[in-house]
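Subject: for your reference before the review

Hello V.,

The reviewers asked for a structural picture of the protein, and I figured it would be easier to keep everything in one thread rather than splitting it across files. Below is the amino acid sequence we used in the manuscript, unchanged from the supplementary table.
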Amino acid sequence: MHSFNLAAFCSLIALFLSLPVHAISGVHAPVAISLPAFSKECLYYDMEDLSDTLLVGYQVLTGGNFEIDLQIVGPDGDVLAEEKAKKYGDFLLKSFGVGQYSFCFSNSYGTALKKVEITMEKEDNSILDDPNASEEDAIANHAIEEIDRNLNKMTKIMNYLRAREWRNMSTVESTESRLTWLSLLIMGVMVAISVLQALLIQFLFSSRQKNFV
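And here is what came back from the structure prediction:
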C-alpha cells in the first residue's frame, strides 16, 4: 500500500493552477443550423498556420431519415473531402494551406426540415514536452493531457447520446403525426361508407315501392 503524499498532491495542484490557460484546449460551443429540403448551408473557418489541425464534428438531430451531404472546400477552391448520406461525422482536418475553408451541408434526402449541430475546434498542440522542464512540470503536463483526453471522450459520448435522444424524439413525433392523420383518414372512410350504405338502402326500398305500385 502506497501512502498518500499530501505535499506532492498540493504541489501538483499548484503547478496546474500556475500553468497558462491556453494549455487546456478550449471548448467551442456547437453551432446548430436548419436545412430545409433541397437546401445548402455553408460554414467557414480561417486556417492561420500550416501546422493547424481542425477537429470537426457534426450530427443530424431531427428530420426525416437524418441523412445529409457534406463537402469541404479548401482555400484554393479544391474539394478536399465529400460525404454522402451521413447521419454524423467526426474527423481531423489537416491544413492544406493558409486561408478560408468552407464546410457546406446539403439536405437532398426527403422533404423534411433537418437540424444539424456542428462543432469546430482547433486541436491544441501547446502542451509539449520541454527537455528543460523539471520532473514535477512533466508530471503535471502529462496529467493535464490525460485529463484533456478524457474530457474530450466524455464530451463526444454525451454529444452522441444527446443526438440519439433528439433523433428518437423526432421519430416519436413523426410517428404520432402519422397516426393522427391515419386515424382521421379511417374516420373519414367510415363516415363515407356509412353514408353510402344509407343511400343504397334508401334507394333499394324506394325502387321496390315503385315496382309494387
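For the response letter, the relevant points are probably these. The beta strands are 31-35, 39-47, 53-62, 68-73, 79-86, 88-94, 99-107, 114-122. The chain has two helices and eight strands.

Happy to draft the paragraph if you're swamped.

O.
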